[in-house]
Amino acid sequence: MIKTDILIIGAGPTGLFTVFEAGLLKLKCHLIDALPQPGGQCSEIYPKKPIYDIPGFPEILAGDLTNNLLEQGKQFEPGFTLGERAETIEKLEDGSFIVTTNKGTKHHAPVVAIAGGLGSFEPRKPLIENISYYEDKGVEYFIKDPEVYRNKKVVISGGGDSALDWSIFLADVAEEVTLVHRRNEFRGALDSVEKVQELKLLGKINLVTPAEVTALHGNSKLEGVTIIKDGEKILHEADHFIPLFGLSPKLGPIGEWGLEIEKNAIKVDTLDYQTNIPGIFAIGDVNTYEGKLKLILCGFHEATLMCQSAYKIINPGKKYVLKYTTVSGVDGFDGTRKEAPKAVVQAIN
Ligand SMILES: Cc1cc2nc3c(=O)[nH]c(=O)nc-3n(C[C@H](O)[C@H](O)[C@H](O)COP(=O)(O)OP(=O)(O)OC[C@H]3O[C@@H](n4cnc5c(N)ncnc54)[C@H](O)[C@@H]3O)c2cc1C
pTM to 2 decimals? Predict the structure, then answer.
């Protein structure tokens, strides 16, 4: 059982900033995310795109914003359960919660902050009859650890940035990489398309287009795939099949937790973004209230106010006096201390 003060569901920008604000109040956080990496939409959908409306940053790449948020929260030693979806919640008699993921990992906390954005990103799966049988037996929709593919035969399908980038990366890791796409044209960064072309000419990537993977074979694990190209069936040996057709967000299991839902978002009050269940807050893109704006800076604000109420739940009767970080400094849970240089009292001759 993982124990923490604030259990955050969703490691997007809102969830990541919560770690920092909670840390200032000496509250510890643990984050669950269905994706294998933190950053939410910023790292999954547009890591290389510039954002222009983060206060204090005239321009910042979404991927760099994620890295900065991780760096800012690092001193408060957040825990992460990545690649797992928060599935069920149970309220205990003392008012605390146990949240269990789809892989059975249990988390216990007095406060739950849902920062689930548009919902958990679910992979778009190709319509291949027995694909679910081969999941975790050779079929993967995310690449968590590229080393899994070392010296293996890998078939990737898809025509976007993920399919291109992973084909390029795995060309140096796997024994064989085959990239299958329905069209001859790819929709991705120009340098990635050119790199795949170059690796194809070097014989490091087999490019099969226009074509489609239509069947999977193997007994206890994946051993091969059927590719249809120009109406012809090709039986191709494969240890892994990685369809990268993008992700679609779904509110998913959170929608069944007894929370008030309006238009696929969780209704909250505007005092501290608490839901209809005391102790469960919803912040960032996942919530709704009159005048709601789905912007990163609004998620940061909501996280800050929510932490103040979380403090009161976790420390009943204790008063918290707001201090400026410039004045009080920041004490990390890792023993580090950041503080502004102290003023000196010294005569000037
Ligand atoms: C192309 C694009 C450009 C954008 N540009 C801007 C911009 O310029 N400025 C701006 O302010 N905003 C912009 N946005 C919007 C911005 O990205 C969102 O407002 C922001 O990401 C919301 O952050 P969040 O942390 O609330 O949610 P998200 O970033 O959506 O993160 C939520 C996380 O929760 C996880 N999750 C959900 N449910 C579960 C569950 N049950 N279990 C485990 N994990 C779960 C998801 O996997 C996800 O990682 C843009 C969005 C897009 C798509």
Answer: 0.78
